[in-house]
Amino acid sequence: MIPHVNTFISLFSIIVLLGIVWAIGMPAATAITTTVGRKYGMGTATGLFTMAMSAGMVISPLAAGGIMDTIGVKFIFYLSGAAAVIGTILFYLLTKNYGTEELK
Asked: How many domains does the chain have?
């Protein structure tokens, strides 16, 4: 949506929405890490979680800069949105049955 906004208030609204989604998602991700940590070890789970977050913080801006130089700045937002949707679908498919074994 960011390439299509024309006013400050619409950009502000999108950023607030992203902040809300992030505020909901991070505690959930931390809870999943804690659950996995009970099985594989807290240090291992927390270390992998932190490594993945840090790698994303390094790789994403570098990749976005390369894409911007090659194709243009608008394409970064489209690609990021597509990656978020695909990642959400993959996450759902990989975790939809997680934890149901304990309920049976």
From this structure: 1
Backbone φ and ψ of 18, nearest 5°: -60, -40
Domain that holds residue 52: 2-103
Q: Where are the alpha helices (DSSP H) in 1-104?
A: 8-40, 42-70, 73-95
Dump pLDDT digits (tens) for 26-41: 898 888 888 888 888 9
CA atoms in the 13 A half-sphere facing the CB of 90: 6
Model's pTM, two decimal places?
Answer: 0.68
Cα-based distances in Å from 23 to 19, 27, 30: 6, 7, 11
Q: What DSSP designation does 37 have? A: H
